């Protein structure tokens, strides 16, 4: 059990490993840092910055007592040292730690020179570390699926409690969505899932032989973002590029069936992007893609821009879903920026580069950006720095108003700005413990965030609903639009 101690009790922990911070909102980046510190010695103490003078307002949105409680629930620290203000030097003198672990963002900090000089004098050492960067989760190795699901739902409820969100608030937010209208711009993909039966190994080569049983097509990428938005109750137009082929016909049929505005441009020089996944008992074997990645030419650009200009005066925002297959060219992106300024629109962006080359930093002055951690690190060319510092760096470099950093099985962190320009954050967990199909989960989050913000809703309730949305999206094989009714049912289940 984690013990709360004061500076006067510090001598009892001589030789410990000491971590340090204010831990305003504990997110996966902090947990990685603390797990690393935990591995360095048998006794981990976290020095928690205090609220400051009692006659002055605290610089943190949550009190030290609340922050200490959140740290205790992690079960990583043996003790939490409650500082009055920021007496790190005094903490080092009292505890004489064998190791001080600091976040990489503090390396070279002028205010730490004296504390680190004292640490060296006392025979201790310092390590700057943000924790190990991982893109997968191993929780199911250590805890049952049922217990992990319960823990994550508790984390979701705690996030809502911290943000003052009740179920009625989230339902009220969803009621405003029908008044929103959005344009989705980007690459359109058709995903085909082929359900197969495993027959065995080939006698000719060491390959698995399967027999195809059934197949189903889904619209993906920008098209499924538009489909989600429409299913949530808002109006939506899709502006994209397809080829002169039967796959394009399928896309047009789906748009008509789902009542999505058709702003498709036909480019005979390239096929409609098509990806086929072979699946055995819900396990994906491999994927075959048919695509072209060159930028659309000037004539096609003109048609895309014309489609955007015709619809922009009637909507509240533009969603850019860029898979880096050549639709969102620099010229098209410049036109989007001009339309946004001309008509006072919001601008939402997601750039996916799992197997492509791209950078989210090309999206400047957006209302919201939604990269995952890998895309964030690639864009900033930084594999070591902590999540918090990286997120702050992207906010600064891109000059975006808000940010969602997606962390796969660890959920996501949202960053918002208060009226006075201060940046606040809140992590939300991944509610689905053992997902069936994670492809398209990020598209579902983008759809909710754009719909909510474009309808005038604040960031935090919209993010809470997006957390629910992602949990539904990964429980279905293929890109299936999630309707608002399903969201309400999940909300009832998770936040009774």
Describe the structure.
This protein has 496 residues and is an alpha/beta fold. It is 35% helix and 24% strand. The protein folds into two domains: 3-132, Rossmann fold; 155-186 and 221-268 and 296-494, Ribokinase (UDP-N-acetylmuramoyl-L-alanine:D-glutamate ligase, 3-Layer(aba) Sandwich), CATH 3.40.1190. The chain is built from 15 helices and 19 strands. The longest helix has 18 residues, at 145-162. It starts with a strand and ends with a helix.
- In CATH, the topology of the largest domain is named UDP-N-acetylmuramoyl-L-alanine:D-glutamate ligase
- Tell me the structural class: alpha/beta
CATH superfamily of the largest domain: Ribokinase
Portion of residues in helices? 25-40%
Assess the beta-strand content as a share of residues. 15-25%
CATH class of the largest domain: Alpha Beta
Strands side by side in the biggest sheet: 11-10-7-14-15-16-17-18-19
General shape: globular
Q: Tell me the span between the first and last alpha carbons.
A: 30 Å
How many structural domains are formed by the residues?
Answer: 2
Radius of gyration: 25 Å
Mean pLDDT: 92
What attributes does this structure have?
nine-stranded mixed sheet, 19 strands, Rossmann fold, 496 residues, single chain
Gist?
By secondary structure, this protein is an alpha/beta fold.
């Amino acid at each position: 059990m984690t013990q709360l101690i004061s500076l006067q009790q510090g001598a009892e922990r001589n030789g410990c490993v000491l971590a340090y911070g204010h831990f305003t909102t504990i997110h996966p980046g902090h947990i990685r840092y603390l797990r690393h510190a935990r591995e360095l010695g048998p006794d981990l103490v976290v020095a928690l910055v205090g609220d400051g003078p009692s006659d002055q307002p605290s610089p943190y949105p949550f009190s030290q007592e609340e922050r200490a409680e959140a740290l205790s629930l992690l079960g990583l620290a043996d003790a939490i040292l409650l500082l009055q203000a920021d007496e790190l030097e005094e903490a080092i003198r009292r505890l004489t730690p064998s190791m001080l672990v600091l976040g990489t963002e503090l390396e070279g900090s002028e205010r730490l020179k004296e504390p680190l000089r004292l640490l060296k004098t006392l025979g201790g050492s310092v390590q700057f570390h943000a924790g190990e960067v991982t893109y997968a989760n191993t929780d199911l190795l250590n805890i049952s699926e049922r217990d992990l699901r319960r823990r994550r739902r508790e984390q979701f409820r705690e996030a809502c409690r911290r943000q003052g969100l009740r179920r009625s608030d989230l339902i009220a937010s969803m009621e405003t969505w029908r008044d929103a209208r959005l344009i989705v711009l980007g690459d359109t993909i058709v995903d085909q899932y082929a359900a197969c039966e495993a027959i065995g190994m080939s006698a000719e080569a060491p390959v698995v032989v399967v027999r195809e049983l059934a197949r189903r097509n889904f619209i993906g990428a920008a098209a499924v973002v538009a489909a989600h938005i429409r299913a949530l109750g808002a109006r939506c137009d899709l502006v994209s590029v397809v080829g002169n082929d039967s796959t394009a016909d399928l896309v047009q049929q789906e748009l008509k069936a789902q009542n999505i505005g058709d702003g498709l441009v036909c480019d005979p020089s390239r096929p409609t992007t098509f990806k086929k996944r072979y699946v055995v008992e819900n396990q994906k074997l491999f994927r075959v893609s048919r695509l072209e990645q060159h930028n659309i030419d000037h004539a096609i650009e003109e048609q895309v821009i014309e489609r955007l200009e015709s619809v922009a005066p009637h909507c509240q925002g533009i969603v850019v879903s860029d898979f880096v297959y050549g639709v969102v060219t620099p010229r098209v992106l410049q036109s989007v920026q001009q339309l946004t300024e001309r008509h006072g629109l919001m601008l939402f962006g997601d750039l996916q580069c799992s197997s492509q080359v791209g950078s989210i930093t090309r999206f400047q002055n957006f209302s919201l950006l939604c990269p995952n951690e890998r895309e964030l690190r690639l864009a900033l060319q930084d594999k070591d720095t902590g999540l918090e510092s990286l997120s702050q760096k992207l906010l600064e470099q891109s000059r975006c108003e808000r940010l969602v950093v997606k962390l796969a099985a660890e959920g996501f962190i949202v960053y918002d700005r208060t009226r006075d320009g201060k940046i606040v954050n809140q992590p939300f967990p991944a509610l689905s413990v053992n997902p069936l199909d994670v492809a398209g989960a990020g598209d579902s989050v983008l759809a909710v965030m754009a719909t909510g913000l474009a309808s005038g809703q604040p960031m935090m309730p919209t993010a809470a609903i997006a957390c629910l949305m992602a949990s539904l999206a990964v429980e279905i094989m293929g890109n299936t639009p999630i309707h608002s009714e399903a969201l309400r049912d999940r909300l009832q289940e998770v936040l009774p």
